[in-house]
Here is the input.
Amino acid sequence: MTDDRRSRAWYGMIDKDGFTRRSWMKNQGFPDHVFDGRPVIGICNTWSELTPCNSGLRDLAEGVKRGVWEAGGFPVEFPVMSLGETQMKPTAMLFRNLLAMDVEESIRAYGIDGVVLLGGCDKTTPGQLMGAASVDLPSIVVSSGPMLNGKWKGRDLGSGTDLRKFATAVKAGEMTLADFMATESGMSRSKGVCMTMGTASTMASLTEAMGMALPTNAALPAVDARRMALAHITGRRIVEMVEEDLRISKVLTRESFENAIIANAAVGGSTNAVIHLLALAGRVGIELDLSDFEIGSGIPLLVNCMPSGKYLMEDFCYAGGMAAVLAEVAHLLRPARTVLGGDIAAYHQGAECHNRDVIRPFDDPLKPAAGLRVLRGNLAPRGAIVKPSAATDDLLEHEGEAYVFDSIEELKANIDRDDLPVTADTILVLKGCGPKGYPGMPEVGDMPLPAKLVRQGVRDIVRISDARMSGTAFGTVILHVAPEAHDGGPLAMVQTGDRIRVSAQAGTLDLLVSEAELKERRAGWVAPPPHYTRGYAKMYVDHVLQADRGADLDFLVGKDTRPVTRESH
Here is the structure.
């Protein structure tokens, strides 16, 4: 057993404790020689039937194991909490930090030398990376991959994006309810994550751009045999990473985060990337704040995928995937190490684009300067964000009267009232959906359009909230307003009839109410009562940071790489 290898303290000791651990592992049929000092590789699996996006990860784990065995390692698979974005209430984001705790403590407590993170659905990838970063072992990601393109009546369907369009069409009387229901079975035709450039595919893409996964990880369909081959190769590589002591902190540098911001702009990635990258940076010890996302504000949109374009992830894969995108922005990328040991440049060397309608050239983009914009002002003193690539250009510079919903329940009960006093110029404001207020900051920021406006032909209006929105969503939606309303931020003081001014170009978001009036409103403001008084949810509300700091728990920021020295028996 190698003296400096972490697993030695578990399996290399010739004493009662070493006997106990080896003996119990042998009840699974492992022979003596697997405890000969070879690297022990943990396979951290978020497989679950309640997380359909991740339902193929059990098979991919077998591919990883093949690679680990082939490279002379000892693979051991272990489960962690799985976050099914479409299945969990009140929101999967409430549990991202709990998953990160599960991953961190599992890695720390078990005798492994390196770890392969198997994730996919929106919060699993950032949650796993956050947990792994806080222990800082050699780590690498294999994503579950996107579903095949949806199909219905000869056309492609994009999960989430087309769902929203169809729901609006039904409301407008442009689509029958029968047709709407008929699309349900054609929308999700295979295992895997959303086949749009939603949060899951965005995070898989950024993981590749940051060098935390091997090339092709972002776009290979979940059911493509090449993803199983990728899992196999990843299993081989993690053993080599352990031998090289290539820890996660050596890959996740300031430069790799900047590359992720650049890549997110180029692919038209999810707004959720902001909150996840901020949280992950906090774990690694990288100084990253909202202003750093301005790096991407002038970068053009190159990937013509829903919700910012018309194609889907399967098309993106066949057009060249992230390698082709990185090649287009190569002149902007920072030198950064990857899990292959070399620079990120190796990920796009020799890359070709096979469909220029799917991946556009840098000098002929789908949209210019389409990266996420950070907005600040007296309504969002600590920032808010908007996604221009998915917005209506004319509404990115807008002033209008606010119509306020104090809760998601109030919105749902009233949004389709025929007498709702709104026009196409109205700015909808939703409160109480931030990290503490919901709790968990749900994907409800893309509020449904009022039925009366839909019938008038309106398809977008400005919407502002302290919530998030799905990566599959679209519209002129201003999100992550910080501080949130529940924490006494200025959003809590907005009243129906107030005027609000938005300027994406200037990066401003202002409530046009006098400071004297706001001071009087603050004096009369009373914090809403808590939704939860026990368990993890209470701990979350008591310790969660605001959106501009990644909504991590305050006591989880940073890492602890001290060895575990106390024995269990």
Q: What stands out?
A: The two ends are 22 Å apart (CA to CA). The first strand starts at residue 40 and ends at 45. Residues 151-186 form one domain. The longest helix spans residues 225-244.
